[in-house]
What does this fold into?
Amino acid sequence: MTPATQKSRALAIAVVSALAGITATALTLAGALPPHADAAVLVIAFPAFVLGLYLYWMAREGEADIPFVGY
Amino acid sequence: MIAELLFGTFFGLLLLGIHRKVIARIQRRPGPPVWQEILHMLKFSFKTTWVPATASAALFVGVVLVAIGIWTAALAVVLSGGSLLIVFAVYMLHKIVEHGFGLSSGSPYGKFGGVRSVISAASEIPLFVSVAGIALFTRSLIISDIVAYQEVHGPLLLTVPLAGLAMYLVLLSKMPFGPFSIVESKELVSGYKTEHFGVWRAGLEVCNGLKTYVLLTTFLLVFVGTMPFLFLLVGMLVLVVSLSFVCALCPMLSPYDSVTVQTIIAGLMLAYVSILVVVS
It folds into this structure.
């Protein structure tokens, strides 16, 4: 898998989990979803969002630096 | 709940930063800025990340997700005024998660950290006997019922102070740089989290912030009762500063001494609750 593909996959995870969390909370506020269902969605979505977001902004699209090989 | 989740994470990290600052000032060091733990979390999230060759990849990554997920669940339980037993169950799950962190890495430092986590669980979990002291008075372990009881009868901290002390020791056990912080002691580098770097460590920092917020909120709700949100934050700050004093003034115990001290206290608590049962 190329670095660019990895980066876009991480972004997809972050976006999907954020949308799931926001939708569940919005539905709960509107009274269409019980609060425990909102919590259940967030238990799955929040960790996925955190790691997806971090992996997205950590990922490099180009080549990595040449590692230091000593003097 | 999203707002509470984000606020809890950042405020918990801020409290951990204040904890480090207070310890440093007591020890006459300048110490890091109070927002250092937030910066830590952000810094790690930008670091190059991979899975070590010796690690079990699925467990190595999965355990970070589980760590954040269980404390998200605990926050939901506390906010909804659910069962105190579920919060304690999450606390026990966190011990298993720490063990998973250590074992998944394949590093001897991580493994020793994981093993120490299980050892310390054997002595921390009996401290939950304090729950029996609470249940004797409130006849319920639902947080909302406990809060309602205190609105009528006053804070449980005054009614069962030793149960409060036992819970305080549970909090102390989870604070970094404390006398019972044997899972992260320096002879193990960073203990169970030694090999979790970059994004994985940033995820662990999120979990730590959330965990601190949830545990402090639970303590205040269960032993002091309901209060305005601002007072709750001030109460958490006071608790953290008091814990920082203990951490700054007490050396880290050896694993054997840590378990012995906690076991003795758990035994005393058991005797205290037995007396309460007989008296009531």
